[in-house]
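thought: fold this chain, then report.
action: predict
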Amino acid sequence: MRLVVIGGVAAGLSAAARARRCDPCLEITVLEKGAAVAWGACGLPYYLEGRVGCLEDLVVHTPEYFRRERNIAVRTGAEVVAVEHSRRQVTLAGGERAPYDRLVVATGARPDRSIDGAGEPGVFALSGLEDARRLRSFLIEKRPRRAVVIGAGYQGLEMAEVLRTHGLAVTVFEAQRDVLGRHDAALTDFVRRHLERFRVELRLATRVESVEPESVAGVACDLVVLAAGWKPNVELAVEAGIQVGRTGAIRLSERMETNLAGVYAAGDCAETTHLVTGRPVYLPLGTTANKMGRVAGANAAGRREGFPGVAGTCIVGVCGLGVAVTGLSGAQARQEGFDPLEARVEAPGKPRYFQGQPVAVTLVADRGTRRLIGGTVIGRDGVAGRINVLATAITTQMRVEDLAQLDLAYAPPFAPVWDPILIAAQQLLKDL
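observation:
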């Protein structure tokens, strides 16, 4: 049986590798239009910052590795321009046709470049290795002094920190009234005040329609970074008759199968299910892409596996501060029909005699079920570990009573005897 995978980054190669483990006899071909495969897109900001020495360090495996170690044919520079499912074949840009019995679509996403002037010199969007190489060269050779970042999502906030590291004055524009798309006024205010300490100006509720020479929305600048969101690459799939959902991404079953029998999809081109709401959601994240790819590959190889969805757990560094979220904010929960109650506390992440820094924790619960449905952790100590605890609690549908009694680790170098999570859970329990 022949399996063809379109796309050779996180989701596509996870699908191919999982399919090979499930069936050693499969003929597997991965078609990637770019020059590199299996590279870490999330490391691009750290390459720009200088903490990653060279782009090649972000490449995990080469096509030769997959051929030699996994018996998977990985072709770079192989752009698929059409899928003819009735004939079970894909067509490449040069006219070559590749037949398949099963197909995995992992075409990813692209930055939103719908702003006038997006193609001007000095305007960058960070979606690939060459994008990062050009931007780093620009920073070194042109030595810009003022930058504008369009978008206050995860990438926008990361880029603000990167540009401040290079000594630029930075202004961040965001079309919405909040950061990270959370509809969380307290989180937004916290991030705004923190950015101001590092001379990063945050302008909310300001939609940028165009980029003018050396200025954006009246702000003078030498450099513009587009980080206003991602668009799923679904054009190829739609032309083949694959349906998209209400999010604009490919609609899938729990088994990652599209409406076409034997055709699967995974990663940033596809939607998934939110574990709290049970509804389709578009969350283009590397963690989600890898999990979806594994399930798609297993089922393409004949297994019957399911992917339940995600809680939307994310973490981002903002000028030395860890900002992490999972589940829904209070406002999002209200919009989804829940009756939410929130508790916010600030407590040391370690004992004070161990120089414990404040950690801010917000918990959101549903009054009716008393389930935890959302959380935020902000601080310098143990942010990733704490948000992972909350993500686990949401995934297992834990009630606040159970969260408040969790047996969390304590030792002065790592955490206080009363962890900020437990303090927040106790506060939320009192309010309930």
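thought: worth noting. Residues 2-110+230-300 form a domain with the FAD/NAD(P)-binding domain fold (CATH 3.50.50.60).
final: tokens above.
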